[in-house]
Amino acid sequence: MTSIGRLIPLFLALLLAVAGAGAATAAHIKAVLEAETLRPAAGSRITLALSMTPERDWHGYWLNPGDAGAPADIAWTLPRGVTVGPLRYPVPQRLIVQGLMNYVYERPYALLMTLNVPKGLAPGTPLRIAGKARWLACSPTICVPEQGPVAIDLTVGDGAVTAASRARFDTWRAKLPMPLGQAASFEAKAGKLRLAIPFPKGRPVTAPYFYPATDGVADYAAPQMISRRGDRLIVEIKAARNPQPVQAIEGLIAIGPDRGLTVTARPGPVPAAGVPIAGAGDEAGADGWRTFLLALGGALFGGVLLNAMPCVFPILSLKALSLARSGETDRHARVEALAYTGGIVLSCVALGLLLLGLRAGGAAAGWGFQLQDPRMVFVLLLLVTAISLNLAGLFELRAVGIGEAMTKGRGALPAFWTGVLAALVATPCSGPFMAGAVGAALLLPPAAALAVFAGLGLGLALPFLLVGFVPALRRLLPKPGAWMDRLRRILSVPMFLTALGLAWVLGQQAGVDRLVQGIGAALLLGLALWWVGARQAQGKRHSWIPVAPVLAAALALLLVTPSGGSPAAAAATGAEGAEPFSEARLAALQAQKKPVFLYFTADWCLTCKVNEKAAIERPAVREAFERAGVVVMVGDWTNGDPAIGRFLEAQGRSGVPLYLFYDRDGRQETLPQLLTPATLTALAA
Predict the structure, then answer these.
(1) One fold for both 184-276 and 573-684?
(2) pLDDT exceeding 90 applies to what percent of the chain?
(3) Helix (H/G/I), strand (E/B), else coil: 174
(4) 344, exposed or middle or buried, with CB in 10 Å at 0-12, 13-18, 19+?
(5) What contacts 578, CB < 8 A, 6 or more positions away?
(6) Can you give the residue ranges of the Thioredoxin domain (predicted)?
(7) Closest of 541, 506, 538, 545 to residue 522, by C-alpha
(8) Does 3.40.309.10 match the CATH number of domain 573-684?
(9) May I ask the CATH architecture of the domain 4-175?
(10) What pTM did the predictor assign?
(11) Which architecture does CATH list for 184-276?
(12) Dihedral of CA 393/395/396/402: which sign?
């Protein structure tokens, strides 16, 4: 640390510490050592966390504290053979005090590290992990060096991690910067430091800021100018007063709230500045508005195209039937269109609110999260089964109250519930333009993000809305008649196929036992609805009563259905010979300069499954990859794997499918969301 200004508060803090050495004082930042598992397996690596909780108006410091401050460190006392890696810091915030720039944490944070357990230890062997931690705690007026013992007792075991511990550590991991993977370049001349950082031109970035980890190269308090030129972020900073000659500059580029990329820059050419990007505090800047408008436009257009995606096709049966019934009068058509649009838009906004809430709580959730829970799939299986049987004419829904409002009848309520169902089933898959739009929305402020989700719903509803308000389009529809009953029965076929697909997803997520229970519940529901239809034909009152015990039994099954998935089922997902996704394995393959085709899928994403059957799993593609030595890697996001969620977010995506190809030289190419065998064989060539 070379900044003289940094020594001033440290000197004052030392005086205060000496003056108060005789009095015991409570720490202003509470430090607690935690482990992801208390029973690590022999030969394994586990994550430790130094959990730091500052008092109000106090803060701790990043790896490079800036103009003033000091980072934390731990002097370890470890069992023989046990080692602990370096501290890993989350993305910091900036704090200027009397003209000095500080890189700090003003909210609770955690410093993560990796503990290596030696091989050959017998189960039950105790491991006491202890150390003396030191950190600097500061308020706007005073700094206090603090220290204290930290320790945790572990026992060699099976390495099991509880769900609560996994969620807590995933929350901390989500705030760690991701490795950029490509070298940046820098040049220093005329009192200015300029860096060119590789960054995909199509990926959104919000309030970027470069935090130098290498000391003595930049004026920390000087404003930064960051612009975008093609697939590079150009960072311009005032150089330090007496810059130190260095062969590499390390640092972190923040790209959004608690999101960042680690950067290593080496001497090299830096292009001229490009389009300026709004910085922190410049929320109304042109680039912020541009990002929002591009995300909104992408969501709107993506929603329109989503109507043609394979994962949306089954719901088109309900749309077609409602469209055919909506054209009797102009007023009736407009009411149907607006109600249907309202159902979709409100559902998309509600899903967006829930998604933002889950992510704010630390969950690595993405678009389509509602079908990552087997319980939701179970409910949808029964609902779609009931709708299929109704379309087939087995019974009429008017005796079941809400069912009538979902798919049949005239007026606003039926159209509204049809829109709700359309949004619930249609949104899990990402279509063209939609993935980037939703990824950008997750980096925008909450109000702007919800506007993007509403734009997605509007795009999905737009075809129906146009038919409702454009008489010329309605005149293209055939007039209501007896053909509607035939169409209704024909349209039951894709709904039955949807039910079959949901049953398969349930089996993939929760195993064969839950699959049998789901099919059994659907069968019992079908028998009960057949009884309902018979009672309706006889004109009996309360004809829906046979459904009550089936729904009670279904509720009991729902309560015992696990929220997580089946690891065995997840492991079986993927093309023949494909390796399961792992960031460590991907990095190893890139280090070996091997080409990699990496794709992310989920059992509830029909677009993913179509691409797999039509392109990825074709013999010609498999043979071409084998000849070229292309390693195929698959990430199964069916059950919402947090590691995959974090990786998708780092790619600017919030859902699947995502297809990436890494060349031998490390270059990454993002492939289109609709694949053909020719597209993949061309990569191998």
Answers:
(1) no
(2) 27
(3) coil
(4) buried
(5) 632, 633, 634
(6) 560-685
(7) 506
(8) no
(9) Sandwich (2.60)
(10) 0.47
(11) Sandwich (2.60)
(12) negative
